[in-house]
Amino acid sequence: MGLSSEGRIMDENAHRVDRGSLLISAPPSTIYGALTDPESLEKWLPPEGMAGRVEQFTPGVGGGFRMVLTYLDASGNGKTSDTTDVTNVEFVGLVPDQNIVQQVRFTSDDAGFAGTMIMTWELQPHPEGTLVSVAATHVPPGISPADHEAGLASSLANLAAHVEQEASAS
Fold first, then answer.
1. pLDDT digits 0-9 by tens, 84-116
2. How far apart are CA 95 and CA 60, in angstroms?
3. Most buried among 6, 27, 35, 57, using CB within 10 Å?
4. For the chain, how big is the Rg over CA atoms in Å?
5. Do the domain assignments include residue 61?
6. In a domain, 83, yes or no
């Protein structure tokens, strides 16, 4: 945080945008389903090196879910405990097969992870499938841009593998 010329506190992270995108060989409806289904979220959302569990899932705008992410190597990197990151996610915008806007709050005693991050998922039809883009704003300063972008890329790769595997099993 810094001070503006008027003496107000400014949040440098307000203008930070962490992004990721991937062309996935699946239609927007399949991807939208994976973004809004608790069992699917558990399979693809945790980045490499983590496992996830969805709790308290409520569909629709105003609903959301709680996700417990657990580090597989127990390295003591967790935001909520030594080995876990817990997030509370609220759906604030849902346009089927097009986009999802989420407010994400970390459960942490560390002020570096306080606040509400906004994640916007965009699904754009493409001749070879769907271009999935995610943008995160108001990212807590405790999450480095490089680590966050790596995590987003990992989750997108997991999403592609999940929906493409589901499609081949059908």
1. 889 999 999 999 999 999 999 999 899 998 889
2. 10
3. 35
4. 16
5. no
6. no
